[in-house]
Amino acid sequence: MSDIHDTNLREGLGERSQSYWQKAWMRFRRHPFARWASVVLLVLYSLALFADFVGPYPEAKSFRKLQFVPPTKVYFKTEDGRWTRPYVCKVERSRNPRTFKLEFKENCEEKYTIYFFVKGYPYKFLGFIPMDLHLLGGPWLVEEKAYLFLWGTDDFGRDMFSRIWFGARISLTIGILATLVALLIGITMGGISGYYAGSRVHIVRGLFRPPQKRAAVPGEEGAAEKNGFFSGGALAEGWREAVHERRVPIFLVGLVLQYAFWGAATAVLYTTMQGFLSISEGLERYLAMIVFGGLLGIMVWMFLFGRLAVDVDDLIMRTTEILAAIPGLFLLIILSGMLAQYDMPSSTRFLLVLTILAFVGWGGLARNIRGFVLQLREMEYAQAAKALGAGDARILFRHIIPGTLGYLIVVASLAIPGYILAESGLSFLGLGIQEPSSSWGLLLSKAQQIGISAIKERPWLFIPGFFIFVSILTYNYLGDALRDALDPRAEH
Amino acid sequence: MTAYILRRFLHLIPTFLGATFLAFLVIQLAPGDFITRLELDPSYDRAQIENFRRLFGLDQPFTVQYAKWLSGFMKGYLGLSLSYQTDVWHVLKPRILNSMVLVISSIVFIYVVSIPIGIYSALRQYSWGDRFWTSFAFFGLAVPNFFFALLMLYFALWLKDTFGHEIFPIGGMRSLYIDGVDFFQAPKWRQWLDVMWHAVLPVIVAGTAGTAGLTRVMRTQMLETKMQDYVRTARAKGLAERVVIYKHILRNAVIPIIASIGFLLPELFGGAGFVEVVMAWPGLTPLILDAIFSIDVYILMGSISISVVLLMIGNLLSDLLLAWVDPRIRYS
Known InterPro entries for this protein (chain B) (predicted)? Predict the structure, then answer.
């Protein structure tokens, strides 16, 4: 007996006790790629944050005559082979007399030394601190004596190197923000769906006693309630329940909503029928009369005598099924294509793209969260909270949702690359972020617009694609590491 | 089983109605309609424009338009395309067939490539080969389709410049001429061969993400099944390793893989969509993109409703297949 006791003691002394999060952090750090992925992402995000400083040119600065200039060569050696400070030569435009193609030639008569941490174009850091410090450049750059296009220029003669960092701002943040919005919708919908699964909500309560519902024996207990023309209806039944449970105000609000919804639905159905019948003829007209008439009849009957209660869970899950039934890309391009036809400032467009991405993507999250909530609401601590008299919202958001936190983090980190991909895809098709703003997808689309055969002459237009690839890759690695770290089954 | 299938079928009806109604609603978000741009054209007068509106039912409330469209759909009539001035089905049919060529070949490609790789990776876990394919899977999942398609075009151009003739075609779906004969006059098998030759690069691009994903799933499945008790039993009773692997491990591991065909479909639709746009494959997505900007309602509704039907049937078949392959699954 004492032996067992001793071993237990020794084991307890041997190791420090660690919380779930401490263990997860340990596991995360042990993951081979997690560190690399985090470092790469950190670098990308800081480059995006300091885009004004890193890029030598402002986002919209364009040189009309310098379209598709190849990357400027940076020389580290003089002509006689001695090492020197890096310098560039001036690019000059000429037309090839034989092919009539534009050509860019370097004129190395004068050398333009690249300075670091120099004054350049003024900008506002973080949007409000006026600065003019740049990582690369020189006085010649602002005076436009020579140009520094490290990664070439696009179709408007804008510096790709600068625009890639400005594009990183949008491409890298939209993924996170869209995930947050999608999570918000997903948690709310999935939470409600899971928590209220099985309980029904009335869409309509009939006003009067249904004809078939009558107490068999007139003298039976409660026969007055059952047989009364008004007091036998579903409405009266609900009223009695509400009075009994002391929640009359909520019941009344619900009632108003129910009838408003039902009235609107009937009105829409009626106008639809009218319009449809006015433009149809023959068999179609008769069939439509039967279908619409039948539907209207059922609705009116429900309003008078019936009752209709639905499971909120069912309703929400059917909605996610409907969203999933349309191929994601089609829904995405049609939604953003329709809205892209309005003129709007770039910040509004950013919000719009973000909202569209979240709207198309919340369904899967909601389904998963619902599954979790279904499990967790049966847990003892949730039951205990209920027994202590906590409200539904409190139990759901203070007790159940925090239990899914580990899962949510993993899901978020795996959803972000998907949204980055979706945004760049949309912008690539010209339906997402629009000029003059920049995003990686939009920048990459230049490679496609100029025609297939020209691709080979302008390979620098591919560079934004590598950035999309790298950011998705690192997020995938990060998500994998987080999943391994936060999965409770991974405990050793 | 019959009751289960029937119930699943009935379940599809509200989903279909909801999805098409949602699509119709989304199309209404556009500023104006197809006729709006005609209003700016001075060669049309008011009366003509009103006439057009009435002809296409655009003067009715949109629920009426939807009901009319739905009633047409049930008769097998998808409406009139506004910009092509013809029956929508005539425009859609070749596009859908073209897209199907791409999607079906991608599915075949995905399964043919990923299952052997998954088996290999699981049987030689942590070997160099396994590591190579695992990192390949990561790369394949991360590379954006449209970027990969551009790279492939670049590759095809490079091949052409290096060898002097087209090893792989540069975009498109068919050659204009086959051996000097017009494409449509050439024998059928030559036509198919030509299309297949054009499909090689697009299929690789469209299938890579799916291949990468499925390879990982296959590998995990194999690894999990390898640890089962019945595998140990099979070994213990002295079966040859080959029999153990192919009869006991593989057959059980492959079940969810087979069944996930239906769930691959939506992703493939999307993936193939980008490839179609970049590689000039005349499929459904380029058509939709054109229709979006001319607000050609019925082309959009036609392509969405047909892809919704295809997707739902794919999912249903997938579920049924799973239930059929795996007797442990009960349908309720």
Answer: BPD_transp_1_N (IPR045621), MetI-like (IPR000515), MetI-like_sf (IPR035906)
